[in-house]
Structures are given as C-alpha cells and as structure tokens.
Amino acid sequence: MSDSFSDTVTCLYQAKGITDKVISIAEDVSRTIRGVFRNIENIREYNQIRVLSALQEVRLSDSYFGGSTGYGFDDAGRERIEQAYALIFGGEAAFVRSQISSGTQAIAMALFGILRPGDTLLSVTGQPYDTLSQTIGISGNNGMGSLIEFGVKYEQIDFDTHGEINYDALLQALKKKIKVVFIQKSKGYTNRRALLSADIGKIVSTVRDAGSNAIILVDNCYGEFVEKREPCQVGADLCAGSLIKNPGGGICPTGGYLVGKKDLIEKAASRLTSPGIGSHIGPTLGFNRTIAQGLFLAPHVVAEALKGAVFASELFHRTGFDASPGAFDLRGDIVQTLIFNDPGHLLKFCQSIQAASPVDSFVKPEPWDMPGYECPVIMAAGTFIQGASIELSCDAPMKPPYTAYLQGGLVYEHVKYASMSAASVMGVM
Length: 429
Ligand SMILES: *Cc1c(COP(=O)(O)O)cnc(C)c1O
Description:
Elements: H1 9-15, H2 20-32, H3 34-57, H4 76-89, E1 93-97, H5 103-114, E2 120-123, H6 133-136, E3 153-156, H7 167-173, E4 180-184, H8 197-209, E5 215-219, E6 238-242, E7 256-260, H9 262-272, H10 288-318, E8 322-324, E9 336-339, H11 343-355, E10 377-381, E11 393-397, E12 403-407, H12 412-426
Helix pairs in contact: 2-10, 3-4, 3-10, 5-9, 10-12, 11-12
This protein binds pyridoxal-5'-phosphate.
C-alpha cells in the first residue's frame, strides 16, 4: 500500500478535523444501533413496496410528465398522482399541488375549508405549530382573517405532566359539540414526544366512543413514512403536510398535500381555488415527474433521515447531553432534540451542521430575531431546496435549556459526518 494515498474513511474524517476520540466513539455507536437500523429498514421496505404498488395501480406513465398549463383542466398525470397519494395514505381522495407553497398553507386550507362561524376547533395536542397561531388567531388578531376573526371558537388541551395526551380532558371537552379535533403528530418545536400511529388511533376511538362525529384532522408534517401506518389508516378523516418535507423525497421543489374523505378534500381545495371550482383546476407546469419521483424516493429518504437522527441521538447521549427521542425509543417523526444547556455549545453545534452542508457550507449562521418568535433563533440549513427540512437542517431558539431541533438528511452518511464534526468542534468528547 502506498502511504501517500489512503482509501479509508477514517483518514478522510481525520483530514476534516474529526478527533480520534469521536471516531472511536462513533464506531461504537454504530455497533450499538445496528438493531435499530434493521427496524428502520424493515419499515422502509414495507413502505417502499406500498408506494411502488400504488404507482403501478394508478398506471403512472412517462407520458404524464409533460404537464398542463393555464387552468390545468383534466391533467391526467396530476389525477394519477393524487390517486396514488390517496392509496398510500389511506384516504378516499387526495389533493397534491405545487400551488400549495408550505405545510402551513395546506393545514390552513383544511381548517378554513371545514370550519364555519360558530364551530369549535379543539386541539388535543396543545398549541399547534407556531406558524398556525396567526392562522387560528391565537396570537392576537392582525386583521388578516384568522379563524377566530371569522367566528370560529378555539379550545386546546395541553399535554399532561408526563407529556401524554390528556384523555380525561378530551372526554370532558367532547360533552360540548366539537366540529374539528386537531392533532399534531410531530413534536415540532416542543419537548414532548411525537405521537405514534397507535396514539392517533386511540384518540380516534376515544372521540368515536364518546359518540362524537367530529372531523379528525392531523397535521402530518414530519410524520410521513416514519411508521407503517398513516393517520387516515388509523381512522383520521383528513391529514395534510408539505412536499419539501418527508413525502417529497428531497427532490420535490415545492408543494403540499391533503389526503382524506372526498367531501373534505373538495372543501379544502375550494379554499385554494374557489367554491365551485375546487380541485378541478391546477396546472402542473412540468412538476408531475418530480412529485411522483419524490414520492417514490420518500420511504428511502425518510429512513436515511431516521438513521441519522438515531446516530446523533446516541452520539450526543454518550457525551452526557439529553437526547430525545433516545436511540432505542419508538419514533413518530424525524425530529431529534438535543439539549445542550449552554448557549456556546448550541451555537457551535448549529454552525458545525451548516459547515458540514453540501450547500452554503461557508456561511456562518448567527441568532436573529425572527418574526413570530419571542427570542433570537439560530437556523442551520445548507439545503438544495430553500427551507427543505427533509434535508439536514437544525433550528434552535437561543434560550434555556438551549435545545437544538435537528431533522432531515437525504443520506445517512451526511448526518453521521455532520454529527461527528459538531462533536469534534464542540470539544465535548
Ligand atoms: C413544518 C411544520 C408545519 C408548517 O409547515 P411549513 O411548511 O413550515 O409551513 C406545521 N406543523 C409541523 C409539525 C411542522 O413540522
């Protein structure tokens, strides 16, 4: 062997400044989590075959990838992709469009589509994701037409002291007429755990056993393909999410989706377009291929992100930090929380994640006062698609306990390397 050329990855890691200590702990971590990876691969295989079968069943063909313009009436490719989404996510119908620019927009379409003045919206998973506060009107009315401004009543049930759903409070709340029961699957930016499909199933049966026919709506962002069953497959009526997260497989450039009961899908679609036009318009402009190909890749990419999260969890747990979920915990979303209890550690962690990115690796993120947050936030995201959090990214509010929310990763090796690099830079091992 020539010594001027080394073909081991260890030498590459060393050349990139990763300490020998971190390299050795990482090797041990990899051995420890092998069984967890097998479980992730098992779910991946199951979901991959489900996705493949759906694309075959709807007879996807490359002749649909050209795309429509203008109104986009009768776009056969769009219709097939939506049928495939409905099959995979267990709904009667689906609405999958590039015209939905974010998860918030998809969820807002659902809420405005199904709630009417005087109706009550009940969140059973505490306060919904930050960006929905103004949509609902929880955080002050700004005159933009929130649900509350339109006369919708809002109630929420917080998690109990153990971070679990408060079923007693739910039963109590169901004594009144509730139009929509809202569930957020992912932990989002909170310290509670993500819900599993089984938890969603339990909420559904609690609501139905109480004799309520409330519409059960799930914010499915970050939850897709993490488990074998999706919300509508355990009884939810409607779910929504973003195509620059899990179901876009890392290649969808934009878009959002809704899946559920046919009448509810049409009501939600009528918010994006208009009543009477509903789902009938929507030019695909050449996006059918990336939406379909992203869906095809999604189970695989989600598994890569999950493996990365498990590795980061165990690596930082070994250095004495609180990591949630733990490597061996069941997961319902792709978010990994790391609690650093120190602003310096948090800053270095986020900057290392950015420096380890394929895009904008030379940019140094700093905390800034982001609109809608009560303290400075630091964000690391060297992504190919702007804001795509199925790509490795990290957000952190600069306040105690100095928690980093790490998620995504198109390839496991990237997340592994970024975590090792951060641990080395932080000098915590
Ligand atoms: C990302 C996210 C949203 C909002 O999606 P955007 O695309 O950022 O608007 C809502 N809920 C959860 C749980 C999310 O993770």
